[in-house]
Amino acid sequence: MDTFLQDLRIGWRGLARTPGFTAVVVLVMALGIGANSMVFGITNSLLFRKTQYFDEQRSVSLYRTIPKQNERRSEWSMPDFRDVRERVKSYEAIGGFTGWQAYVTLGREPERFEAALVSPGLMRVFQAPPVLGREFTTLEEEKSRALGVVMISERMWRERFNSDTAVLGRTLKVNGRVREIVGVAAVNFRYPDNSDFFVPLYYDPTEDSREADYIDIVARLKPGVTIPQANAEIEAIAADLSKQYPRPDAVLSARVASFREEFVDDVGPMLAVLMAAVGFVLLIACANVANLLLARGAGRQREIALRFALGATRGRIVRQLLTESIIVSLLGGLFGILLAVWGRDLVLSSIPLPLPFWMDFSTDPNTLLFTIGASMLAALLAGLAPALQTSQVDVHEALKEGGLHGTSGRGRSRLRSTLVVAEIALALVLLTGSGLMIRSFLNMANQRSSVKTEGLMTGRFTMPIAVYASQESKLAFTDGLMQQMRALPGVEAVSAIQALPLSRNAWNRNFRLDGDATGPDAPRRVTYYSIVRPEYFKTMGIEMTTGRDFTALDDSTTQKVAIVSETAARTLWPGKDPIGQRFNWGAEDTTGWKTVIGVVSDVYQHIEGKRPPVTIYVPHMQDPQQTLTLVVKHTNPPGAMIGAMRRTLLARDGDMPLYETRTMDESVTFALWENRLWASLMSVFATLALVIAAIGIYGVMAYSVAQRTQEIGIRMALGAVRKDVMGMVLGQALKLTLIGVGIGLAGAYGMTRLMASVLFGVSPNDPPTFVGVTLILAFSALLAAWVPADRATRVDPMVALRSE
Predict the structure, then answer these.
(1) How deeply is 436 buried, as exposed, middle or buried, from its count of CB atoms within 10 A (0-12, 13-18, 19+)?
(2) What are the residue ranges spanned by the domains of the chain?
């Protein structure tokens, strides 16, 4: 320990004597280690970090699966949930829920809150007893809408009710129904979806169909029960239910999965790509630092020779040099943590959605340990080879030179060149991955350009079922609202749709064509579908390619009609005129056949879609929905238009808020935020790698020019001109670059195949991307070598010859 402390003191004094060199090395290390620390911290928080209410071994989700559709995470119907709850034996608690929206007036105007319809027992799954009052404990609350009760989150109780213990028994108007507050949920418990209000999940045997899948099931395993055991039980129950209540369109199964699985499935591939990217950044940083340490070691040849002459062993010298590497790596790790925190906060601030309540991205011990480990690994990777190389010194030759110049030696030159080649190869792999992500994002954005955005304002509203239960009341309210909106100054057109394009709110539904076989051999057909008002396509600028639009006459008293997308027309009725074709919503559809009256151009419904989807539109007048999104074409300033829309809605119903108010351009941007974030992160890491690699090339060329000053002077004295010297130096840089590019292209060809699942509209081995990043890297390398090359041409032959 005494020797180690002595090494630290000596190393620190040596680094302090060269502050410029130390600052550069620490900065490079901080960038590499900081990027790794940031991405690891985010990955750890999403996939591995323990949370307050989730037990990794016992908290599970129960999914219904549809093998025929390759669907692994489907919801359950309310009747099936009740059957599962009665039959399972492996769980000590089980609950069901579905996401909801609560519209509550707590101040001057109504507000929209995230909420959930939950079954009795849901909070027992998470062992989250209320801090005040009770949870829903009786099945009577599941059977009757008349029992108007509500629970609120602890956050809501604290922020909006000032933690008043007299809140129990108070009444609130929630979605048009007066409800009594019976409990306050556990501290920080807002499951699911950051819910602030919890209402009993209602069951009506006359309304709830076994084909209406909208319930998510969560459960807590009994002690000693494993996930495979619980999985076998739920598969058997699902098989029995499938036999007892066969569906005409699918054979169903089920499975049990830990809560983490869905997050791993959703973000795991992209996080793996990011971890690989920052790993490359760290390797490039280590290679760069190793080159800097080699350059520094070349100037310490006389010092090392004197140490040997005084009796130091090679092992002692190597240890001392490694200690210096450890010091700069730990300093880099310290500043890297600060960079990681800053970068993490910047990434989180760019997310336009509230984060789930259970996510905690604060720096934890695991992230600190990872950073320390990365620092030590970086010290070894960056310091070992230079330490071994520097300790190989000819004592007699070094002492004879009198300390004026060190000698580089062929071995050291080869090592420096090898490190530069490695930097270039790694940078090219990372640049290629970044280029593919950017191309993927641009393709996604361009292919969504069918949605016109200019002069369009949108906003959602929900008609509470307690007030607007009948079709007549919903239609009367919406018809009146449309008329008032059209009368607003600056408004050119108004319509509405159940789910905007790209909003992720589009529904899918099974359907059957007229003429399809029935029974087990019936074809499986699924479509996106949406409910629209008349003039929606005109307002949105979506082309009607054939047929006609919906009108106010397409109501419940007339023939059921529909409009389909071009892809639907081409896919469902190839070679036929789609106008007049018929379909229905399956064997149990009691509303009758729908007739196609028009075809419109394709519009993407989900941002992740690889191809334009099969989409069917039906008129709101024939299928009124509680929630609609207004689409207003106008010439007003956006802020003024939002205010006018909100005032118009409140004038018709003072308890109904207008929410998710955005311009259509903002809606499209919002839909792309996640893909933009991934592409931006990859671009930042790739740019960082490119800069570090360019610094490495500059360092090698500058050092080479310094070592060859006498040679260059002799060449110029013998008649070499500027062009010859410039070509010699740039030629050396180009040679290293070409070797690095060749190795990097081979590595990129293999590595980018792992990105296939996260790319859109671009091949993992996309030729334009490979060519483009190669040219960028080659140009950057030659640009980095230009300054040393230019310096070489300015050598004075007489000064160079006298230098020895």
Answers:
(1) buried
(2) 1-46+264-391, 68-250, 404-445+672-803, 468-652
